[in-house]
Amino acid sequence: MTRAGWSLVRPRWMRRRLEGPWRGSGSGWQWWLADPAGRRPAELFDDFLRQDSPQVVALRAKQTRSRWCYRIDDADTAERHWFAKRMVLPRHHRLGALLGVSHRWLGLTHGSAEFRHALALEQRTSLGVGMLALGEQLEFGLPTRQVLISSWLGDWPTLTSALLQADGTRRVQLLRALLETLRQLYRAGFCHLDLHPGNLLASPAPSGRGNCLPALKVIDCARVSLDADPDAAAAIHLGVLMHELNGKRGGIEPGLEQAGTRLLRAIIGHSRPAAERLLIMLLRYSTKKPFSRHTLLGRAPERLSLGRIEQTLEQMTGHRAAQASRPVMPSAALARAIAAALVSEA
Predict the structure, then answer these.
(1) Strand pairing of 29-33 and 131-139?
(2) Can you give the pLDDT at residue 7?
(3) Residues 297, 181, 157, 54, CA torsion sign
(4) Rounded Cα–Cα distance for residues 152 and 124 (Å)
(5) Closest listed residue to residue 38, CA positions, set 129, 120, 112, 101
(6) DSSP letter at 35?
(7) pTM of the shown model
(8) Which residues of the chain are under the pLDDT cut of 50?
(9) CA separation for the pair 190, 230 (Å, rounded)
(10) Domain spans of the chain, in order of start
(11) pLDDT at 134
(12) Which of 15, 60, 261, 274 could form a disulfide with 302 if both were Cys (CB 3.0 to 4.6 A apart)?
C-alpha cells in the first residue's frame, strides 16, 4: 500500500484534528501537528533523531518499557523549552497505533492512544498539558516508534513532592485542588486508569503566603476510558490516589474510610453505596499489574462481584514483594486534611 493509502486508514480524529503528516530533515520520521506551535520543537527533535543535538537533553528512561523522556531547548530563546516522550512499540501495539485504537487486543498504551486521550483532556477540562506534535517512524506502513511533544512544565512538582514539601495550609489547598480536579474528570467522563500522585503535577507554590488554589495537570494519559460509569471512575481515581498517599498500606483506619466516602460524595454529588464499597476496597489493596483496572469498568458497580475481586486482590498481595512505603500522608493526617479541605470549601 502506498503512503497515501496508509494515510486513509488513519483514524478520523487524527485526520481532522492534526495537520500532517510531514517529513523533516531526512531522519525517516513523519510528524503530525496539533498546534502550529509544535512545528519548531518537532523540527528540533527530528534533527536530533537524525544526528544527536545539544538542544535535546535526556531526562530519564524507563528501560523496561522502552520509553525515554527529553527536554527540547530553543537555542533562540533560552527560557523556552518543550517536553518529549519517545517510545518503542511492541509488535502487538503497532496496528492499534496505526488505527488510533486503544484495545487490549491491539494495544492500550501506544503513543496514538496517549495523544488522543491527552487532546480529549485538553478539550474537556483545564487539566491538559498542551499537546503539540506526534512523531512516528514507520516500517511496512506500521508505526514502530513514536514521539509525543508537549508544553514544558519542568518546574511543576508531582503531587507527591508538593505534599511532602507543603505546610498544613498548603496541604489543604492541594487537596482542595485535587477535589476540583476529580470533579472535572467526573464531569468530562474521563477515567484515567493510572491516576497515582506521580501523574499529577502541581503549579509551583507562590512566594509569600497566598491563598489561591494551586492548579493541577494530569499526565501519562495512555490508559484511559472515555465511556466508563462516571461514579465508578471517580471511585477508582480516589481509591488509587488515597492508597498511594497512605504508603500503599493494606490496613487503614475507619476514619480514612469515612473521609474517603465523604470526598467521593462531594465529587459525584450524591450517595451511591456500590461505588462507595468499590472505593473502600481500593483503599485497602494495590490494583497494579497483574490486576487490570479495566475489569472494574465492564459493569455497573452494583453488578461487580466485589467479594470475588477482593479475594483476588488479597491473593495477589500475598504473592507480591512488600510494597508498603513511607506514607506521603499517614491515614490519620490524610483524613484530617480531607476534612479540612471539605470544610474550607463549604
Answers:
(1) antiparallel
(2) 63
(3) positive
(4) 20
(5) 129
(6) S
(7) 0.93
(8) 1-2, 4-5
(9) 8
(10) 3-151, 159-345
(11) 98
(12) 274
